[in-house]
Amino acid sequence: MQTPHTPTEPGSELPLNEILQRIHAEAQALFGRGRVADYIPALAQVPPRQFGMAVALTNGSTYTVGDAHTPFSLQSITKLFTFVLALKLVGDDLWQRVGREPSGAAFNSMVQLETELGIPRNPFINAGALVITDILTSRYAHLDIALLGMLRRLTDDAHLYWNAHIAKSERDTAHRNMAMAYFMKSYNNFDNQPELVLDNYCRQCAIEMNCLQLAQTTMFLAHGGLDIGPDGQPREQFLSAEAARRVNALLLTCGAYDAAGDFAYRIGLPVKTGVGGGIVAIVPGKGTVAVWSPELDAKGNSVLGAFALERLVQFTGWHHD
């Protein structure tokens, strides 16, 4: 964490480290208002009373509070990374197989697939993420290694990995996801064997990071597609500026399951949430924010995480440009 002499951010009367301390203190009252995800048995074992938050700015400065250095299961947040990887590989051909519209339905719903002929609404619901994983499975003999390689480069952590216990627990209970995969295959929107894609998908979801790593990994989306190192120095043009803008737009409209509209109203930043309790938010031109707390609301989003992001934008005046 930065020293107490950190300059005040525009739109706030408090320096960022004090803002995070205040949010951390306020969030304690919300413990017990949500439930840890229990449909994946391994996630049900996560102690619920945890909260971490990290802010990373494009100038290289970082701010953390609470359990920001505790690794957690990214789960659906990894859908952002597989989507970006697929977008880099196949470009606009991606949109032949998945849509760009909010679903308005639960992340694991099958309802729209039949009426929309096996084309998922967007890449961030389970059906859409399965199609993305199918595309990547066709391109990579070892998708888990390819994805980890990309994330290790973005985090500067060569030891980043997926949790085998969580991956197995998820795979053993992936009946609905398997049903969706076979259903989309019946509409010729699935190329590989669903069992192989589900193996890749469950390993992907079981990747672990802490809040600071997650904030660093998504920095390219805050800076026009340019990856910024922990020292604030530019490294590589990871995505084009136009592609980064479009990814952020999709995160704003579809990144929080069927609560995306509420998140846009309350927080107003591009976000991606996960049932592991993590949320990452992009502040274009300024930086990224990652929060984690395992207790979820009825839509599958972190109760304390959503509160923390809403309070942060109230304190700072940050918004999506």
Report on the structure:
- With 321 residues, the protein is α+β, with helices and mostly antiparallel strands.
- The chain has two domains: 16-72 and 208-316, DD-peptidase/beta-lactamase superfamily (Beta-lactamase), CATH 3.40.710; 76-205, Beta-lactamase (3-Layer(aba) Sandwich), CATH 3.40.710.10.
- It is built from 13 helices and eleven strands.
- α5 (126-139) crosses α8 (175-186), α5 crosses α9 (194-205) and α6 (143-155) crosses α10.
- The chain is globular and about 55 Å long.
- Mean pLDDT is 93; it is low at 1-11.
Question: Which labels suit this protein?
Answer:
321 residues; alpha+beta; Beta-lactamase; 5-stranded antiparallel sheet; globular; disordered N terminus
Give the helix proportion (percent range). 40-55%
Low-confidence stretches: 1-11
Order of helices and strands: HEHEEEHHHHHHHEHEEHHEEEEH
The CATH topology annotation of the largest domain reads as: Beta-lactamase
- Seen as an oligomer or otherwise, the chain set is single chain
The total of beta strands comes to 11
Q: What would CATH call the class of the largest domain? A: Alpha Beta
Distance between the termini: 27 Å
Domain count, please report it.
Answer: 2
Strand order of the largest sheet: 3-2-10-9-8
Structural class: alpha+beta
CATH architecture level-2 label of the largest domain: 3-Layer(aba) Sandwich
Average pLDDT figure: 93
For this structure, what is the CATH homologous superfamily of the largest domain?
DD-peptidase/beta-lactamase superfamily
Proportion of residues in β-strands? 5-15%
Radius of gyration, CA atoms, in whole angstroms: 18 Å
Give the helix tally: 13
Shape: globular
User: Quick one: biggest sheet?
Assistant: 5 strands, antiparallel
